[in-house]
């Protein structure tokens, strides 16, 4: 449990019968690589809320800032990454919300794994090749729950493997004796070891084949329903998010440019970039789409275009796009129903987020 750290005032959730309670609120987060004039502004003024029990997908091309956002929000940013501003408000199961960016190193150690865990890109290759799976799982449990007997540790490790569909006799295996899919499942079991409220998955299945990817993600969604954690799921493959997320946020050039319920985004994306991304991947389900891709390349973060950073590639760009940055906010009611935001002059907002 984290020591008390000065509560942060938070907005009440919308007063609907199914109140959506926030668990992690990213507010106006800015992350740079380096300092001064040479700094790369990798994440810009990001507002994003993960709700309890929800799978929130984060998509965007390579270099759009997805991993930087996740690592910045959890204080796992490697140098030369620096948080240039913002707050990340975490809502524990019990107690007052607090700002993760204000935690001391000791508080941060307690916070990691126990409250939030991450499955990194290529995590399955980060299992230690010289230790059995049992040792690697029990090490994680022991580090945060000292005093458990050896038998209790092994029983918990077996239970965790069971959660991800691996028989307990595999506890005695070394990583090289498991398939890629099984190794990735072991990493997910580790991430769930301390029953965190938030699991961040950064391209968790990219290295696996399409069938295995979907098997693992289906299992994760079932576990989420049983155990009640929330998932921030990062990928460049929007078709995966459409299948497995409740909501989807799209990043471009370090900013969120659209956020919507997954089905609404798939049916009716508002931002031309989201539309382009959706038309870049074949969907396994739903109606067929013609794959057209997105012309041009992602922007150079050191020399961002003025106005809307997507304008040099946007098929719908018009007069204000090259000079004025469109704010993120709910589109006009006449355009679409609520519960979504977009940053595009085609849908100018009257109530910018933040
Ligand atoms: P990918 O899907 O390829 O992981 P991403 O959307 O997660 O991409 P990030 O890895 O967050 O993007 O990178 C965002 C931007 O920050 C990129 O333009 C990248 O070049 C830049 N960046 C990342 N790490 C560093 C670093 N150590 N030093 C300088 N710039 C960096
Ligand atoms: Fe395209 Fe303009 Fe919308 Fe940007 S603001 S996505 S350039 S139409």
Give your account of this protein's structure.
This protein has about 350 residues and is α/β, with parallel strands linked by helices. The chain has a seven-stranded mixed sheet with strand order 6-7-8-3-9-10-11, with helices on both faces. The protein has a four-stranded antiparallel sheet with strand order 2-1-4-5, with helices on one face. It has a domain at about 120-195. It has helices spanning about 65-75, 105-110, 135-145, 150-165, 180-190, 210-225, 240-245, 260-265, 270-280, and strands at about 20-35, 40-50, 55-60, 80-90, 100, 115-120, 200, 230-235, 245-250, 255-260, 340. About 40% of the residues are buried. It has nine helices and eleven strands. It is globular, with a radius of gyration of 21 Å. It starts with about 20 loop residues before the first strand and ends in a 12-residue tail after the last strand. The structure holds adenosine-5'-triphosphate and iron/sulfur cluster. Adenosine-5'-triphosphate (ATP) binds near residues 33, 62, 64, 67 and 68. Adenosine-5'-triphosphate binds near residues 42, 66, 67 and 236. It is a peripheral membrane protein. Pfam families: ABC_tran, oligo_HPY. Keywords: ATP-binding, Cell membrane, Membrane, Nucleotide-binding, Transport. It comes from Catenuloplanes indicus.
In short:
Helices cover 26% and strands 20% of the residues. It has 354 residues and is α/β, with parallel strands linked by helices.
Oligomer: single chain
Going by helix content, strand content and strand pairing, the class is alpha/beta
The molecules bound to the chains, other than polymers, are:
adenosine-5'-triphosphate, iron/sulfur cluster
Helix residue percentage: 25-40%
User: Major sheet: order of its strands?
Assistant: 6-7-8-3-9-10-11
Enumerate the spans where pLDDT stays under 50 for 5 or more consecutive residues: 1-18
**Rg, nearest Å:** 21 Å
